[in-house]
């Protein structure tokens, strides 16, 4: 049984909505309110699943009331009722279930009731809320973008739903202005259409995340969206943890760092052609390079030439035009009296620079190589 409350300051409209809802056997009208005061006084004491709210009420509009009800009862479904279509976009920002235009036909109301039933069935069938320390979600961002739930690939309702999740994940726990998202994902779309598409996509994303057991993790606050996702595994989170540990404790967790480098291949979301990725990709690239530098310094201190060489070669893959890395490799080969590898790595580097950039190694690299070539 769906338990609902109704709020409308127009007595006839309130009576009409109550009458229509009672025609559905699966719906119980718990209370109908004609004033905001009565609603706010009694709602905290009532057991209900859905609130049908008139958008325009004296003293406080339905959009504000919805925010209050959601603070009291986080999983409440909101259905807005109004004579004005212009409120539709604002309604979806509040994560309403539906938006009904007066006069409301029974067939249109039936669509809303069916949608509520579908949502209730989904919540019964799907996993319970993810508990603390339970990491059922695994996200790979390096070399591509793959999201797994209990080791199964997550499928997205639309291509834009996937992109929106990737974008918000890249700005995790940050308040991102709505228009910033529109500019990033719908730059070529007329603004009003872009807003509607954003809100539809947000709705799809919320449904997908709820289906995975992550409820109310995407919020809209003061004109901004914020994704607050906990209890998940990610290669980027692991990278952040390793660097934070080094910064706070002054030492590197070498074993975990080695495992991270071994299991991570490629740039941030490398397979996705999103224009907004580049700045985040550059940041992650620099973070990986920093971690590799820490490993090289550790191997230098512990005189582990084999792992030092291997890590420098990985660094060179990430930074193929770096004279500094080539110089470190050449210096290592000099220390190890490995002229053959020194010659090969230098010639390969020189060829890459000339082919890709039409330049030569810098003077310091040339002079260092000359000491090897003269032998």
UniProtKB/TrEMBL annotation:
Major localization class: cytoplasm
Record's keyword terms, sorted: DNA-binding, Phosphoprotein, Transcription, Transcription regulation, Two-component regulatory system
Alphabetical list of SMART domains matching this protein: REC
Domain Response regulatory, first and last residues per copy: 3-117
Any single Gene Ontology cellular-component annotation: cytoplasm
Positions bearing 4-aspartylphosphate: 54
One Pfam short name: Response_reg
Subcellular localization, as worded in the UniProt entry: Cytoplasm
GO molecular function: DNA binding
Keyword Transcription regulation: yes
Single GO BP term: phosphorelay signal transduction system
PANTHER family cross-referenced by the UniProt entry: TRANSCRIPTIONAL ACTIVATOR DOMAIN, TRANSCRIPTIONAL REGULATOR REDD-RELATED
Identification of the protein by name: Response regulator
Organism this protein belongs to: Lysinibacillus mangiferihumi
Organism classification: Bacteria, Bacillati, Bacillota, Bacilli, Bacillales
